[in-house]
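Students often ask why inverse folding is considered easier than folding. One informal answer: many sequences map to the same fold, so there is more than one right answer. In these notes we will look at a single instance of the problem. The structure comes first.
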C-alpha cells in the first residue's frame, strides 16, 4: 500500500489525540479520577440539552477538564420530514454555552413523524445528494458552524446511481461540510456488502476529516456484522485504523462503547491502543483549531 501522509497544518482539527464516548455509567468514574490518556470527550447533545441540577453541574465540571465534541442522534438529515428549527436553536445554544469543539451527525435518517431509533440508509442517487446537501447547509447556517457527517453501517445496500463512497463524497462536496470518519463502519459494510474497505479509505477526502470513531461490533455468521458498539475492537478494525493514519495522517480518534460497558480501567486499555498507534504513525500533537 502506498503511504500518502498529509502534513498537518494550523487550525486543522477541532480536538487532538484520543477520545472517549461519555456514557452515564462512566461519568462519576471520570470525575473521580480523570484519565490522563483521554484528550477529549464525546456526548450526544439530545441527552444533555436543558439538563440542569446535579447532572448539569457534572457536565460543567467535565467541560472544564476536557474539550467536548457532540455526536447527534436525531437530526435525521436524510429523512422526509422538515428539519426541526426549534431543536437546532436549542442545539446551537448548547454547543455555544459549553464551547463544544465539533458537532457531527449520521449520514442517514431515523424517522419521519416519529423516531425510529435506528439509522436508515439514504438512496445513493443524485437527487438524494442535492436534497441532503441542502439540509446540511441549512443546519450549518442555523448553527453558524461547519458540521461533520458520519459514514454509517448498513444491512441492506440502497439501490441507486452510485456506490457508498461516491455518494458520501458527493454530499461532502456539495454541502461543503466535514467528514466524521467511522473506521468500524467501513469494516462492517465491507463484510456485509462485499465492498473493499481499503478502496473506501483511499477514496475519502482526508482533508475533510474532523475526527474518527473506532468501536467493536457483533459477529453473526461470517457474512454479517452488526454495529453494536458493545464489544472490544477487533484486530482487523485496529489494522484499518492504522491504514487510515498511513493514508491521511494522524487524526483525533475516539473509542465508542454503548453497551456491555466494562469498568473505566478496562476501556482505557483500548484508549491506550489508540494512543500507541497515533505515536507509531507520527505523533499526537496535531494542530487544533
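Output (designed amino acids):
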Amino acid at each position: 500500500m502506498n503511504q500518502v501522509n498529509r502534513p498537518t497544518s494550523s487550525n486543522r482539527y477541532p480536538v487532538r489525540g484520543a477520545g472517549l464516548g461519555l456514557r452515564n455509567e462512566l461519568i462519576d468514574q471520570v470525575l473521580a479520577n480523570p484519565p490522563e490518556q483521554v484528550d477529549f470527550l464525546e456526548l450526544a447533545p439530545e441527552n444533555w440539552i436543558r439538563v440542569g441540577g446535579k447532572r448539569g453541574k457534572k457536565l460543567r465540571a467535565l467541560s472544564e477538564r476536557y474539550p467536548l465534541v457532540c455526536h447527534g442522534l436525531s437530526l435525521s438529515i436524510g429523512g422526509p420530514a422538515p428539519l426541526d428549527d426549534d431543536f437546532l436553536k436549542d442545539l446551537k445554544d448548547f454547543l455555544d454555552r459549553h464551547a463544544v469543539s465539533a458537532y457531527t451527525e449520521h449520514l442517514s435518517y431515523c424517522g419521519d413523524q416519529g423516531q425510529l431509533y435506528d439509522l436508515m440508509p439514504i438512496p445513493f442517487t443524485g437527487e438524494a445528494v442535492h436534497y441532503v446537501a441542502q439540509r446540511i447547509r441549512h443546519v450549518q447556517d442555523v448553527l453558524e458552524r461547519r458540521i461533520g457527517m458520519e459514514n454509517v453501517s448498513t444491512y441492506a445496500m440502497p439501490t441507486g446511481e452510485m456506490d457508498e463512497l461516491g455518494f458520501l463524497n458527493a454530499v461532502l462536496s456539495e454541502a461543503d461540510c466535514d467528514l466524521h470518519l467511522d473506521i468500524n463502519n467501513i469494516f462492517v459494510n465491507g463484510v456485509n456488502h462485499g465492498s473493499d474497505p481499503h478502496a473506501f479509505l483511499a477514496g475519502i477526502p482526508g482533508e475533510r476529516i474532523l475526527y474518527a470513531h473506532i468501536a467493536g461490533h457483533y459477529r453473526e455468521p461470517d457474512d454479517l456484522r452488526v454495529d453494536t458498539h458493545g464489544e472490544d475492537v477487533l484486530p482487523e478494525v485496529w489494522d484499518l485504523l492504522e491504514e487510515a493514519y498511513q493514508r491521511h495522517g494522524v487524526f483525533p480518534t475516539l473509542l465508542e462503547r454503548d453497551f456491555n460497558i466494562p469498568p473505566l480501567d478496562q476501556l482505557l486499555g483500548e484508549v491506550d491502543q489508540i494512543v500507541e498507534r497515533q505515536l507509531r504513525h507520527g505523533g499526537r500533537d496535531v494542530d487544533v483549531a
